[in-house]
Write a structure and sequence with these properties.
The chain is built from five helices and 14 strands. The protein is mostly beta strands. Strands 1, 2, 3, 4, 5, 6, 7, 8, 9, 10, 11, 12, 13 and 14 form a 14-stranded antiparallel sheet that branches. The N and C termini lie far apart (77 Å).
Length: 333
């Protein structure tokens, strides 16, 4: 500012105005989901950018809406965004949009390596139980100014016509409907919202919580989930999914899941257990993130026709059957 005497007085630079964007494309690094055909109204007020409306197209032309604010724009800006979309494809683009803890949970729910192993073993066809589906999302992404990796992604993802191959128990199931509730340090799966079916058309439910406590960017994953089976069978996919006992830092055994069966699975295959399977299993984790299991299964109208002499069967398969072939605590893993 120039004064009357010819001297200058400095004043703080202010930035105010409105940006109207048409036909743009891009994504935001804290939720890097690529959008095209973006139309937006953005208001500028010094260090605050307010997204009044932002509407763009995601995968398959699904419409995504974003509102919220960015404070002190830059690499370590403060962020408070709401992201909503309906009928969004479940694909790699969506999975890669989730960071830190939420990303690990999505990786927990679908194991691409397990899918490839099951195909290689001839247990699945290449077009079966692929990573696919549709979903509705209602998310909030928050970070304080200079918050670094301390990003909170909360909200809900409602799934339909999707597939799950859980890395801790890679038994392929089709998701007719399901809901994932994202909290800052936990992911909740309400059991009443999940309806799943197996390849053999058995009914399955899943529910519980996956804890993802804050530990920098490397968030640990501690599942506490319950899975129920109704009218299933002892089938090759189920046997292939029964895990080996391994510590956190151990790689999965070669050929698992698929051609390489755990001792418990080998025992069940060896005695050729047949019948209708019902029961409940709990999936947990130790402090080192290694998996814990506790399954209680009941077999109805069953039969056993051993494939070989049981004297050579693995000694560590915990199987108990009474005269009616009602199996209780069939798999204690």
């Amino acid at each position: 500012k120039m004064n009357a005497d010819g001297t200058a007085t400095s004043q703080a630079l202010t930035t105010k105005g409105t940006l109207n964007i048409r036909g743009a494309s891009g994504g935001y690094f804290l939720f890097p989901y690529l959008l095209s055909d973006v139309n937006a109204e953005i208001k500028l007020n010094n260090d605050t950018v307010s997204i009044v409306s932002l509407r763009g197209k995601g995968s398959g032309g699904a419409i995504v809406n974003i509102t919220g604010s960015v404070t002190e724009p830059g690499d370590d800006a403060g962020v408070d965004l709401r992201i909503t979309a309906q009928d969004l494809p479940v694909d790699e683009a969506l999975k890669k949009s989730f960071l830190f803890g939420p990303k690990k949970v999505f990786e927990l729910l679908y194991d691409h390596a397990a899918h490839k192993n099951l195909i290689a073993a001839g247990l699945l066809k290449p077009n079966e139980f692929q990573f696919m589906g549709r979903c509705d999302v209602d998310l909030r992404v928050e970070r304080a100014v200079k918050g670094g990796a301390n990003v909170m992604t909360t909200g809900a993802v409602v799934l339909r016509d999707a597939n799950v191959i859980c890395s801790r128990f890679p038994y392929p199931v089709h998701v007719d409907s399901g809901k994932i509730i994202l909290e800052d340090t936990a992911i909740r799966l309400p059991a009443e919202k999940w309806k799943l079916t197996t390849q053999s058309k058995a009914n399955v439910t899943i529910g519980g919580i996956v804890n993802i406590p804050r530990d920098g960017e490397d968030r640990k994953v501690f599942p506490d989930l319950t899975i129920t089976f109704d009218n299933d069978s002892v089938n090759p996919l189920l046997l292939a999914a029964i895990p080996f006992e391994t510590s956190k830092n151990s790689a999965p055994p070669a050929g698992w899941p698929g051609t390489n069966l755990s001792s418990a699975a080998r025992m069940l295959r060896q005695i050729n257990l047949q019948g209708t399977l019902n029961g409940e299993g709990k999936i947990g984790a130790n402090a080192d993130e290694s998996t814990t299991w506790d399954f209680n299964l009941a077999l109805a109208n069953g039969s056993i026709t051993p494939r070989q002499n049981l004297a050579t069967a693995p000694a560590d398969a915990d199987l108990f059957a009474d005269g009616d072939l009602h199996v209780v605590h069939a798999l204690a893993i």
